[in-house]
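Page 37, top half.
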Amino acid sequence: MGCILVFIYVDDVSGLNGDNAIAVLYAAKKYDLPELVDWCLTFPISKLSNIFLAFDQTRFLGEEAFACCCLEHIDLNADALILSEAFLQSDQKLLCEILDRDELMISEEITIWNAALRWADEKCRQNGKEPSAANRRAMLGPALFKIRFPLISQEDFENIVPSGVLTDAELVSILQHYSRPDRALPKPYQLKFPTNGRAGTNSDTDNSFVSFAANLFP
C-alpha cells in the first residue's frame, strides 16, 4: 500500500484519509509499525468513511478504546448515520448489535424500522432476490427482534402493517401490549420485541394507539 511505503521511507502520513485509515491500521499492525499504528488511532473518527466497519474492524484488531469511540460516535449521531450508505454495508451480526443498543440517540423508533428495511432491501439486491416480505424478513433474521415496535406511534405502525414483514401473531402481540401491557398473553401472542426506550426516543405511548388497540381487543 502506497501510504505505508511513503511512511516507511519519508515518515509522511499525509496520504492517510477516511477511506484508508482502517486498512492502513491493519497493515501497520501486521508489519509491526507502531508509530503508524499510533497515527491511525489518532485519525479523526468523524472523518472515517464507514464508521460501522471501522468499529467492527478495530474491535477485531484489539483496539478496544478506538472501537468504543467509534461506537459512541454512532450512538450520538445515530439518526443520520443509519440513513447513510455506509450503514447498508454492515453484516447481519453487526446490524443486530447496533439495533440492540439502548444508547442510540434516535428521535423516533420508526427511523430504525425504515433503516432496517432499507438494509434488508439492499441485501436482497446483493443476493439477487426480490424484496418480498418473506425475503426481507429472512435477511433481517434476528435483527427484526431488536426493533422496538411497541415504541412506534399508531400512525407509523399502521404504515408498517402492509409490509407483511410481521406475522399476524406478532401484530396481535404488539397491539395487545398497547391495550393491556400487564396482561399475560397466550404463548402464540407473547411479545417478542423490546419495550424499553432508547436514549433519544420519546417512549410515551400514543393515546390514540391505546384506544385503537383497546377497540380491537376489548
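Page 37, bottom half:
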Amino acid sequence: MPKTTKASLCLLRLSNTLLRRLSKTHNTVFCGRILAFLSFAFALSERSAVNLTGRANVNNVTVFDDEATFVDNTRTDDGGISNPHDTATEYRVYQSFWAIQRYFRQPSVAIDSATDWSSFTTELTAVLDAFDSHSFNPKDLDHDVVMFDDDNSPDLAFFQTKYLTNSRLFRLQLRDPVLRECMLTQFWILLRYFETAKLPPSATETQVSDLSARVLSLLKKTPSESKGLTDMLMQVLDRETNWTLWKQDKCKPYERFPTAPDSSPPLQHDNDATRANEPPLKKPRVADPLLDALVQEDTQSLLSKIQGPTRKTAVPVEEFVQRFEEARDPENGIEREYWPDTDKMVCWRTMRGCMRTKITFMDKMIQGTGAMVEAILHVQHGDVVAPSTSPASDDVPPAGDNPPAETSKVGLQS
C-alpha cells in the first residue's frame, strides 16, 4: 500500500479489533501472523502506528500496600515490631520505590512545578540510595553472570513486565538484578526526556546530568553489563532522538526501493579471482523457527482454536448463582465477609448475566445482588417470591453492586 486510503484504514481497524479480541497468551501464533501481515501490507513510514501527540498511557496504575499492611507484613516471628523507627523509614523507601512509577506513566507530572520536581528528585534519590545500600550477593551475582553469558539458557526467554508490589517481597526485590535493571533503565529514559523538556526554574541541567551519571554507574554494576547493556541503551536512546525528529518533520517517507535493473550487458571479468572478490547478488535466507511457525501454521487450525471451547470466556449466570448458594449454605461455614456479595466484579457480572436470561428478577436488584439471587434460588426451590416495591427516584443501588470504574469493561467483554 503506497499510501493510506480509506480501504487501508478499514483493514487496519479490523486487524486491531481482532488483536484486542484475541488472547495474546493462547492465540500467540495467530496474533503474530496478523502483525506480520500488517507489517507487510503497510509502509514502514505509516503514521497510523505513531503517537504523534505524545500522549501518555495514564491507565497503567501501580497499587502498593499502605503503611498498616506494611507493618503487619514486617512483624517478627513473635508478632512484635523489631524497631518502629526502622519500620517507618523502610516504609518510606518502599513507598518511594513504587510511587515513583507515576512519573514513568506520565513524565510531565514531574516538571509541572518546582514542588513536583523536588518530590521527584527526593523519591529518585531515595531509590538510588536503596540500590546502593543493597549490593548484590557475590554468589547470586556469579550465578546471574553465568546465566546471562549462556545464550541457551531458558531464563533469557522470560521477561517480567509487571512485578508484584507486596511488601513481603520488597527486601528481595531490592537485590533482584533483573528488577534493578528495569528500574534503572526507566530512570535513564526519563532523565533523557528531561534533557530536552522545559524544566521548572528550580531545576538545573547539572542536577539532571548528575542523576543520569549515578543511574549509569549503577547500571554498569548489573550482570547484563557483560552483554553491553549500557552501550545498547545509548544506541537505542540515540535512535529514539532521531525518531522524535522524524515525527516533528511530519513523518516523511524514508523507505528505499530497489532501482530498476540495468539493461546493459554485464562486464566481462578477466579472471575468476575478480569474480570471487565481489559480494553475492542475494543475501542468503537465514532460517528462523519462529517465522517458520508463523507461516507454516495451518489457517484452519488457527480458526478452530479461536472457535473452540477454550476460546469461551463468558461464564453462565448459573455458575454465579451457585456461588451465592454455596456461600449461604450453613453446612459450608463460609463467613459473611467472604460471600460473593462483597465482590463488586462478581455482583456486576451476575447482574449482567441476569439481564439476559432472568430479567423477571431484576426488580430485586434495588435491594442488592444478594437479594436478587435469593429470589432466583427461592423460585428454583419452589418457593413464592413477593414482588419488590418500586424504587423511589432518590434510591441508589448499594455500593457493592456498582460496576467498578476500571474493571467494568472486563465484565462487558465476558
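Margin note: The chain has three domains: 1-50+290-306, 67-248, 317-413.
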